[in-house]
Specification:
The chain is α/β, with parallel strands linked by helices. It is 46% helix and 15% strand. It has 9 helices and 7 strands. Helix 1 packs across helix 9 and helix 4 runs parallel beside helix 6. The N terminus is likely disordered.
């Protein structure tokens, strides 16, 4: 595993004494988000289905001097998500930030995509985020404050061939974010979303070189983003710097599809 410590320099300590849950935190963008929030002073609760990966993620945070814990969680399970939030509060007495990042893909054209694969993606990416929002809001409303950040995708805006399930799920996250923001604003809870574009992860780097090159051609900045760059935007939304922002959707795409 590549340590994120060297990739999170000069992160301002904006989250001192706060507790953040990050789903899908075992690797990739989720782990990068966890490292950035930890570098900003937050205590991190890592959530994922892969226990071995969670332990490695916690070890990497410990090596960076962060306080963290991990809990196995299947975000499609109502009991798991409710239990995740409850165990976070039991251990740390609070929950200030909820990052609903867990997501999967099951790409295929509509002609070849099975209904099971369509539902699997909706279940993790949309229903899982909804369960996270609901569980976090239940706790945050009693404190009168909190920040929920949902990870969508630029695919929600532009669609991609072979991703009718993924694009639908991530577009749903945007609608859910805005509706939840309106429901929860008067309780002091902010709900915002991030739409990443092409981000350099093991999954995207497995693309054929010609496909990768075509994607870079339509990005004005002419490069892929790094996971830590998503983490920094999540940090902004989670912190008091975004205290008057709710229902916002921030595109982190290098200018792609403006």
């Amino acid at each position: 595993m590549v340590s994120m410590e060297s990739k999170t320099p000069q992160i301002p300590r904006l989250l001192e004494s706060r507790v953040a849950v990050v789903t899908g935190a075992g690797r990739g963008i989720g782990l990068a988000i966890a490292h950035v929030l930890a570098a900003a002073g937050a205590t991190i609760v890592l959530a994922d289905r892969d226990e071995a990966q969670l332990q490695l993620a916690q070890d990497s945070l410990a090596a960076a001097g962060a306080t963290s814990s991990w809990i196995r969680c299947d975000v499609t399970s109502e009991a798991d998500v409710e239990g995740l939030v409850d165990r976070c509060v039991e251990r740390f007495d609070q929950l200030d930030i909820m990052v609903n990042n867990a997501g999967i893909t099951r790409d295929a054209t509509m002609r070849k995509m099975s209904f099971d694969d369509f539902n699997a993606v909706i279940g993790v990416n949309l229903s899982g985020a909804w369960l996270g929002c609901r569980a976090a809001a239940r706790v945050m409303r009693d404190r009168g404050s909190g920040s929920i950040v949902n990870i969508s995708s630029i695919a929600a805006k532009i669609g991609n061939p072979g991703q009718t399930n993924y694009a639908a799920s991530k577009a749903g996250v945007i609608g859910m974010t805005k509706a939840a923001a309106k429901e929860l604003a008067h309780l002091g809870i902010r709900v915002n979303a991030v739409q990443p574009g092409l981000i350099r992860t093991p999954m995207t780097e497995a693309m054929r070189q010609d496909i990768w090159d075509r994607k870079l051609e339509v990005i004005p900045m002419r490069r892929a983003g790094e996971p830590v760059e998503i983490g920094k935007v999540v940090l902004f939304l989670a912190s008091d710097l975004a205290s008057y922002m709710t229902g916002a959707v921030l595109e982190v795409t290098g200018g792609r599809d403006m």
